[in-house]
Amino acid sequence: MPTVHRTDGGGGPVKVSSLLGPAGGVLGSRFLLVSYLPTLSCGFFLLVLAWAGAPGAGAPDFARAWDTIAQLGVGELLLLWLGLTLVAIVAHPFQLRLVRVLEGDWPAILARPRARAVRRQESRRQEVDRRTASLSPSPAEMNRAGAAWTELTTRFPPMELPAAPTALGNTLAAMEFYAGSTHHLDVVVTWPRLYPLIDGGAKESVDTYRDAMDAASRLAVTAALTAVAAAALLWQSGWWLLLVVAPAVLARLSYRAAVHSAAAYGAAIDAAIDTFRFALYDKLSLARPATPGAERELNALLCTHWRQRLPLPADLSYTHSSSAPETEP
């Protein structure tokens, strides 16, 4: 998905993104939020531990770390900044792969853990599905069943589809199935064509939730790796090993935030499809369907064309609107 670029066009206070120099200008605020800040925060945490004397026997000396920071020269600070920036830039293109891993796209060597994770997610889906059954016609019971149904269709794909091994994977799978489904639009092939046509608050909402999901996912993985590295540094430091809990908890909270952001991202995409789908027909030079039934038939035809590369029917009529100005004789 295209990223949102924001620049400072005036003479006001300098924004944080301007500190990135060329990187900030090219990659924009998405890079700052998704890649740079997680790398900077976790990298600084590990550097402080190293400056405090880790790895080594005994408690880390944070006064020593503070003295080291205070004595850093401009050149050393520039090198540290450059190193962290380069790590963030190199890791940025792997963001999609990182999300795929959090969805449950694991290597074959992890087949057994993946199978256990799938069974656990399947158990959770069945539990939510049981709660969708209304045991009585009372308003409270109906509200409870309705809330469970909303959770089921937001956090899990339909029962006939296999569950993913992770909560993030199931939430995104639910979005891929349900978003646009009432119009017979396959969001996987429709969204790349529709996204450039949306604007205003709808685009801002979609971009905001997508960036929030990606940033939380990156922070979850970065914090988890930081916890492992910190455990290696503090292995001989006694009770100070408990400092590992901080990045571990941050990783867990960030993952939960990624799941919630993914649910909001799916809702934003579904709303954008509802609102802007007719602009897609206009862009494709196709007549707008007159009825919901005709729309569903056309959408099914288009999605098959996009998904399977099958040619459109030869008798499908186009509606071209001439934009050339008329000239007087």
Protein topology:
Layout: H1 22-51, H2 62-70, H3 74-91, H4 95-103, H5 111-131, H6 139-155, H7 167-178, H8 187-194, H9 200-233, H10 245-283, H11 292-308
Helix pairs in contact: 1-2, 1-3, 1-9, 4-9, 5-6, 7-10, 9-10
Features:
mainly alpha, disordered N terminus, disordered C terminus
The radius of gyration computed from the alpha-carbon positions, rounded to a whole number of angstroms, is 25 Å
Strand content range: under 5%
**Mass-distribution shape:** globular
Q: How would you state the average pLDDT, rounded?
A: 87
Q: Could you give the distance between the termini?
A: 47 Å
- The computed structural class is mainly alpha
> How would you name the oligomeric state of the polypeptide chains in this document?
single chain
Question: What does the main sheet amount to?
Answer: none
As a percent range, the share of helical residues equals 55-70%
Order of helices and strands: HHHHHHHHHHH
Question: Which regions contain 5 or more consecutive residues with pLDDT less than 50?
Answer: 1-26, 324-329
How many separate helices?
11
Give me the count of strands: 0
Structural description of this entry:
There is one protein chain. The protein has 329 residues and is mainly alpha-helical. It is built from eleven helices and no strands. It has helices spanning 22-51, 62-70, 74-91, 95-103, 111-131, 139-155, 167-178, 187-194, 200-233, 245-283, 292-308. Residues 1-26 and 324-329 have low confidence and may be disordered.
Quick recap of the structure?
The protein is an all-alpha fold. 65% of the residues lie in helices and 0% in strands.
